[in-house]
Amino acid sequence: MRIMSSPIKASHGAAYSRILGVGGARGNRVVDNAEMCTIIDSSDEWIQQRTGISERRWVDDEQTALTLATEAARKAIERSGVATDQIDAVLVSSVSNERRFPSLSVQVASELGLDNPAATDLQAACAGFCYGVSLADSMVRTGSAHYVLVVGVEVLSKQTDFSDRSTAFLFGDGAGAVVIGPSEVPGIGPAVWGSEINTGEIIHSDEFEVAVAGGFSPKIHMEGNKVFRWATTYIVEKTVETLEAAGLTPEELDVFIPHQANNRITDAMLRRLKLPDDVVVSRDIKMMGNASAASVPIAMEALLESGEAKPGDNALIIGFGAGLVYAGQVVVLP
Ligand code: ACO
User: How far is the CA of 170 from the centre of ligand 1 (A)?
Assistant: First the structure.
């Protein structure tokens, strides 16, 4: 049946949205490759050559996913200039909530004293932050929220299988957050996102009940070379599509912040994108490891803090990982 009229009012929001502020928080423990090689049979040279990682950051005894997320979010809100009572939605992406519920979003809102915002968690592993950015963009433009706090946070050191030397050295702990609000000009380009079904086992964690029954906590398992092949073929093409979707040429891009999974994946993306030499490329993995949903916003904060990237720069961001899933967009840096 065709409906010709409806009594329901639809919401309408801002013409565009943009990122207004970014903040990050890193695990306090610095674990260099020498220390890592006391845990697994490997070498500093192998790890650096294969991934670009020199050291990674792990939480100390005082830090948790909640403390990291709260620290990053507090910085992002302060830098955005938005009052806490104006934040009307919170999206936290994580695979590191210690409890199935309450959500990290509600807990972060509570820690920050926000004014009862809409709050929900997302789960798209390493792509989760970029999923959150596009969802927040849609929320602001449809008027379902005005200012959205988007956080990516992970504590992967507690989910690492240290008996598997092919993954144990990869992971780091941290959080990154942004506030997204209305804009008079486009500040967030179209999402290029999707999933590849029937690939769930390539990166997966142990089932909760199985782990509990076995007396251990769920650990991450990954067939690294399958993910590597997928990232350096399929995802490389998605970076090109993301740039095209935003209507930008490689010459118009200022900054490239891919998920910090492996410098060799970043190199493959750069070869295909043919970016000019003056485009700033994040290599945050060197000091951080792979912090999954936190990796892109933490890297964004680092480039802005070091002055390598400037507010107003166009940045291509893309995340990819367990699912398998991916999401990318071009954003204007705050
Ligand atoms: N030290 C020394 N040698 C090692 C180590 C180690 N830590 N780990 C593996 N090797 C050896 C292997 O035994 C193997 O030796 P062999 O050839 O004699 O059998 C050789 O190195 C190659 O092993 P691969 O596993 O094929 O190593 P690869 O070059 O693929 O590197 C890595 C592994 C770094 C994990 C890579 O596959 C990778 O980065 N994959 C992508 C990961 C990724 O992008 N993940 C994204 C999402 S993560 C998430 O969602 C949580």
Answer: 9
